[in-house]
Amino acid sequence: MRTITKKVILTGSFAVGKTSLISRFVYQKFSATYKTTLGVRIDRKTVELPEITINMLIWDIGGEQTQLRVPETYYLGSSGVIYVYDISRPSSFSQIHDDLAYLKSKLHDIPLVIVGNKTDLLDPVTLEEAKQLVPVNTHFFTSAKDGTNVESLFIYLAKQLVNDPSGI
Amino acid sequence: MTLPEFKQQYCFPQVQAVIFTGDGNILDSCETLFIAKNNNEKSIFEAFPLLDGVRATLLSLSPLSTDKVHLPRVELVFDDQFLIVDMTVSSVWYQGGVAYLWIIQNLTEQYNYLFIVQQERNESIIEGQKLRTENEILDLHKDIDILNKLRKSRKELNISVSSELEMPLNKIMALTAKLKDAAQTPQQEQYLRTIERAIALIDDQITQTRPAQLDLFLVPPDRTDIDLTNLIWSVIKIYNLNHLIKNHPFYLHVKPNFPALVVGNKPRIAQLLHNFIYHAFFTYKGSSTTLTASVIDAKSTHCRICLSMTCVPMAGLLDSELKEMGAQITDDIAALAFSLKGDFELFTLPDQKSILMQLIIPFRLPQENPIDFTTL
User: Fold this and answer.
1) Which of A25, A85, B12, B33 is the most exposed, having the fewest neighbouring CB atoms within 10 Å of its CB?
2) Nearest CA in chain B to A42
3) In angstroms, what CA-CA distances link B348 with B103, B312, B325, B351?
4) A-B interface: how many C-beta pairs under 8 angstroms?
């Protein structure tokens, strides 16, 4: 089976759960204690697709209030982006239009997946209301705490990375 | 560059330099922070995923240029030791060939301070946002309260206006009905029709305030002596003219042992009677109605009054209509009856398509002149 290596970056505002999503996906662990990521942290996970194995290098980029503060060299060589916001905290997606425009200007023609994390913090009714507040289409609503959609998110991105139009 | 030169130039405490080739072989390393050469059997790109992530960019660097790849604040674990480092990769000539120089500067201590500051900053921002949201929710609740009060005031105003209007309106309706019987020119007839339409509109508006009256329960707590028979009649009279115009009979039957006076909250009792009788007249859009007022459980100090009203719709009603109206009537009357410690029940009699509404309310009797029901 063919193996390819792809760099994927997780970015978004601070305290939205980027590190927790990686921790859930790579180590199947979750910690409720918030610990900020200062710069960047790199993890690796192999994703097996039917005809290809993807060696995913996951760059967990420390959250900033705006993407403009993220060192540009972190983006070098990226094949895919996961933009994470916290669905329970509207301020975490108040900059989303500007952030996405900036990311698209720096990273041309690569898959960009938008994720609303921390769904476990809202009851179903409030969650539906909160979804209406998000000004962009979100690909996945996840919970790093209970694992909802975390695996699906990375598999979806893996398929996008090998240009599989079937997506999920 | 030779190895001694390389070490002299780059190897200081807290700084490590590693030289590797484009295919990932480690040529030399200071091993100040970690043992890079232990990974000799592996390519440097396999051993250090972060370099693999920027591999294409690194390999595009040329020793002829001064371009570098600088990655600040990289969090790494070397030999179970957590480090925060700044790193730079550049292309150099080494032993006659192109190589890559990776310089890692351990800034864990310095960044630890930054880490604490950033952690505290982020936490305080989140706390501030939470506080703001909580305050916004509080403000919203305050606004809702104000809105509710305004709505309530509007309802009260409507009710008071409608009560004021009811009597004169009924008079106008009666006079209009009489005028219709008198001889009229075609023009007068047209004026009368216009007046009737206008009255009907006002009447509808007044009718619509009834549910609002029910919602409010804004009646003073005072208890007074009430001539209940009179009160029932006065409520009936309000609707009676309208009823007469529509030519639908209404019968009131007061049983002989009915008390002359009861003690209670007059406005609230009047409101309950309004809602009770209103439904007999209006909900069924023309019914033949009989109201029987009687006493049950009579004692010397208190009694329970039973008002039974049978409504027979003139045109008949479908079962679905009966069910829907029944639910609405029960909602309108039962809550108010309950607030007076009374009971309300509605029965539909499918064979005759008629309705039986029964309202039972407990009353105190005036103590100055207690009635001895046992002798009646």
Assistant:
1) B12
2) B50
3) 91, 10, 11, 9
4) 77
